[in-house]
Write a structure and sequence with these properties.
Structural class: alpha/beta
Radius of gyration: 22 Å
CATH topology of the largest domain: Rossmann fold
CATH superfamily of the largest domain: P-loop containing nucleotide triphosphate hydrolases
Length: about 400
């Protein structure tokens, strides 16, 4: 089977992830559990798939780094793809993203989450383990702004997962490695780009965290994700990422700029045959800011339990609300197309990034080639665009070149 067929099979099976490994059968993650198919995939077939989807232009980069990350539309589904080298050969880890318009309502989230994006400045953190739907919730919050307000939104992602079609908002999306060399550089650039809202795909290191908090203090609404299991743990992780001698100052900075923290996990509902998000929502009240400033993170748990009147939700209280809910958005019931500008991508991966990520430049820059092919839209009345590298990116010298 080729990659299109495997993604189509994963989609029809309701899988959120597809894993391919040389000599092993494909594995699908369905409702949080892995299920394997019968036929193993040969290493040669996977190598050919990898070379075809990455493209000859990117192939030297994969050989150097032994991994490659990108997003691609396959069989009408936006996929986040990681190609990796393992002891058996080449493998794939593919995340199938939601094929419908991501909004608070469509994701079965509580309507109170819409209130989080009404302020004009501050920091909103989304946290949870891998695969809990953080990216979808982040996209839903951005889409709520896009549908309701005329704000300038800049997103910084690695890679871009959901491509937004501007409605009322003016949206720019930047991909690390293709449009900017790093999260740090993109955040520095953004302060000169007149944004109202910044979306940071992931805060991975202290420098990114520092710049993200600085942006939220200078009059911008910033949304970012952190890997943690609870709201209190997310705040503690941000503060603990810095050296001990400056953690007091960082805690004070977090306390000043924080608006809310949303911790999320997915729970399967057998009556609906879907997974729905369960949330813990922490609002930055005066008491919570005090706990953060004094680094009394353990006290945040009691503030959550007693903060219902301030819009806070514990997992237990949120689960009770879910159990009493009667109106559900079921994916696939509506024929509404995804509200994006993405299209079926060519057989090769997007053009070579102007900025290598954690790798040396692979030789001299290539001369500008022919213009990219224009692909017809899949359905009438819908213009679909896949971002490509501009001429400006081609003429820039890469780091380390003379």
């Amino acid at each position: 089977m080729d990659l299109d067929s495997l993604v189509s099979l994963a989609l029809s099976s309701g899988a959120s992830d597809l894993h391919l490994e040389a000599g092993l059968p494909p594995a699908l993650r369905i409702r949080g559990a892995l299920r394997t198919l019968e036929e193993p995939v040969s290493g040669k077939a996977l190598l050919e798939m990898a070379r075809g989807v990455i493209g000859e232009e990117h192939w030297p980069r994969f050989l150097e780094r032994r991994s490659f990350d990108f997003s691609k539309t396959i069989h009408g589904v936006r996929c986040r793809i990681n190609v990796l080298q393992t002891s058996r050969g080449v493998g794939f880890a593919i995340r199938l993203l939601a094929s419908f318009q991501a909004t608070v309502e469509k994701l079965n989230l509580h309507p109170d989450l819409r209130k989080l994006v009404t302020p004009t400045h501050g920091l909103i953190l989304l946290c949870g383990p891998t695969g809990c739907g953080k990216s979808s919730t982040l996209a839903a919050l951005i889409q709520e702004i896009n549908l309701a307000e005329t704000r300038h939104i800049v997103t910084i992602e690695s890679p871009i997962e959901y491509i937004f079609r501007p409605r009322r908002a003016y949206i720019r999306q930047r991909e690390v490695g293709r449009d900017t060399p790093s999260f740090e550089q993109a955040l520095l650039d953004s302060l000169r780009e007149d944004p109202d809202v910044l979306m940071v795909g992931e805060m991975r290191d202290p420098e990114t965290m520092r710049l993200t908090m600085s942006a939220s203090e200078t009059g911008h609404l910033v949304l970012a994700t952190v890997h943690s299991a609870s709201c209190a743990e997310a705040i503690q992780r941000v503060v603990s990422a810095f050296p001990a001698e400056i953690q007091a100052g960082v805690a004070a900075q977090v306390a000043d700029c924080l608006l809310a923290v949303v911790s999320q996990r997915l729970r399967f509902r057998s009556d609906l045959n879907i997974r729905v998000p369960e949330c813990e929502i922490l609002m930055a009240t005066h008491a919570v800011r005090n706990f953060i400033r004094n680094r009394d993170f353990f006290k945040i748990i009691s503030a959550l339990e007693t903060g219902a009147e301030h819009g806070m939700w514990t997992f237990q209280r949120y689960r009770t609300w879910l159990d009493n809910r009667t109106n559900w958005a079921i994916p696939g019931q509506s024929a509404e197309p995804p509200d994006t500008e993405s299209a079926e991508t060519p057989a090769t991966a997007p053009s070579l990034p102007a900025f290598p990520v954690a790798a040396k430049a692979g030789g001299p820059p290539k001369k500008p080639g022919a213009a990219p092919a224009v692909h017809a839209p899949k359905s009438p009345g819908r213009i679909e665009i896949e971002p490509v590298e501009g001429e400006f990116g081609r003429i820039l010298k890469r780091p380390g070149e003379e």
